[in-house]
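ok trying this again, last paste got cut off
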Amino acid sequence: MLVLTVHRTGCGVDYPEQVGAPANDIFARVNHSEDQELDKAIAKCGKNIQDVKGVIMGHLHLDHAGGLHHFKGTDVPIYVHEAELKHAYYCVATKTDPGVYFAKDLDMNLNWKTMHGDSWELAQGVIMHKSAGHTPGLCIMQLNMPISGTWVFTSDQYHVKENYGGTPQGWLARDHDAWVKSDQMIRQMARTTNAKVVLGHCKETLEKYQVAPHYYQ
């Protein structure tokens, strides 16, 4: 049986208006079209957003969690690391990291399911690894596929390919020491599994692979 699971949800509808300045000035959405919205992207695969049975969040920054509103009031589980959920709520409540976490994305009516520890196998061949640095609870996703092999989706541990070469993202790497440890872990994993590594915001990396409606097995 095929189960439709979503990995992160994008910026959400009306992102510039929702987040306002200065967040939209710093984290601007460019070259955006309506077919990139979560429900439209799922439709390209011949599915409906109501078919989603689970959402996996690498972290909860505004550009990843903006589409969670689709799942408010449903029983769809939202998987996120315990450390990330706690940190996100703390930042919103105390306004200590304004502009990257938004209260609208942390709704209590979402069906939060927390991951714990350094690694967690969500399902057969779907393994989450805690990779702190960019955020305290960021997780990367390892997919072991029967034909296309191993894939590693790094979320924002790496934004662009230059980061994957060992150069962190400046102030966006909140904890430099943790980022370096995560970097070493991921690159070792990629070498030993011969993984395809998909970076968080790298257009060049994405263009190496086919996108929906194509799929990999």
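PB: full thing came through this time. Residues 1-116 form a domain with the Metallo-beta-lactamase; Chain A fold (CATH 3.60.15.10).
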